[in-house]
Amino acid sequence: MNCLQCGTALLNNEVICSNCGATTDLEKIDTIVEQPTPLEAPIEESQDEVQIEAPKKNKSKKIVLILGLVLLVGILLGGSYFGWSVYQDKKEAALSAVLKQQQEKEEQAQALIDQEEEAKLAAEKEESEKEAEEIRVFEETVALEQKRLLQKKQQLAQAKKLLPENCVDQQACTLSMLKSATSLDLNSIEIAALRIANLSNVKQGDINAAWALNQQGIAEAKDKNNLQAIKLFRQALNADPASMAIHLNLVDTLFEENLIDDAHKALLQIISINPRLTYAWRQLARCYTDKNQSEMAVNSLVIGYQFAPDKNGMLVQYENVTQQPQVGINLRIIYLSAIKKIRTL
């Protein structure tokens, strides 16, 4: 609506014109507005011109707006894609990190399981080896103990055989006598001697033939033909194995030839026949002295003294031996030791 006076456009149904100050009657204005005036024609023409040009400007604006929208949409889409791409990359990286961390945990867990399994196997192996070692040591200990007990049993059995009342042969009884002399067990010596005498089964042979051979042997010994003499004495003993004189002649000749082992065997043969023969024990002491068996030598002299009919006279003979320079120093020491031991009886 325009002012009726000056034609100025009235805004918001103004009643007073802001240009000329004229008052407008709204009812008349409504009536007037309904009746177009000539002055409004140019205005309508100008408005028509504007209305004709407006679509072109609006079209350009629309194109610009569309292009802007397209560009904005493109930017938004590009930004969205870039953001989505970055998000996906981060997501994949995070997922990858999680998977890697999970894999590392699984590997660590598996490694721990493997270590525990290895430790378990090692512990089982160590325990098995320990048990095997304990079993081996136990079995070895048992075997050693069984061996010790067997040896002890054998020793006891052997010792029992050597007891004076249990010795099974003359040689074992002789050894029993020598061991008894160590502790001066004279009673056991007597028992063993009796046992030897009971076991002896030597019978007298051809005395005449044996004596003739013995005389020939003595003649050869005087001529220093000791080997021939030894041969003749042995032939004589084959004829009469019970002759003590021939046995002693053989022993003396064997000593002359320094045949100590043969002399020792011959003396044991004499003792197996007559265990109470003092001279045989004195000669046996000589054998043990030559073999460096000092204790056995001293014990032999103690047994010889025990069986001597005249003990005091035998002790004097022992003392005389210690004063003879032709007797070896070792044998004199043996006699001195025997005398010292005998004096304790």
Describe this structure in a few short sentences.
The chain is mainly α and 345 residues long. The chain has twelve helices and no strands.
Write the layout of secondary structure elements.
Elements: H1 26-34, H2 40-162, H3 170-182, H4 186-199, H5 207-222, H6 226-239, H7 244-256, H8 260-273, H9 278-290, H10 294-307, H11 311-322, H12 329-342
Task: Please characterize this protein's 3D structure.
The protein has helices spanning 26-34, 40-162, 170-182, 186-199, 207-222, 226-239, 244-256, 260-273, 278-290, 294-307, 311-322, 329-342. By secondary structure, it is mostly helical. The protein folds into 2 domains: 63-161; 170-342, Serine Threonine Protein Phosphatase 5, Tetratricopeptide repeat. It is rod-shaped and about 210 Å long. Residues 27-35 and 37-52 have low confidence and may be disordered.
List keywords for this structure.
12 helices; 2 domains; Serine Threonine Protein Phosphatase 5, Tetratricopeptide repeat; mainly alpha; 345 residues
What is the helix tally? 12
| Fraction of residues in β-strands | under 5%
The CATH superfamily name of the largest domain is Tetratricopeptide repeat domain
Q: Based on helices, strands and strand pairing, what is the structural class? A: mainly alpha
Q: Judging by the overall fold, what is the CATH architecture of the largest domain?
A: Alpha Horseshoe
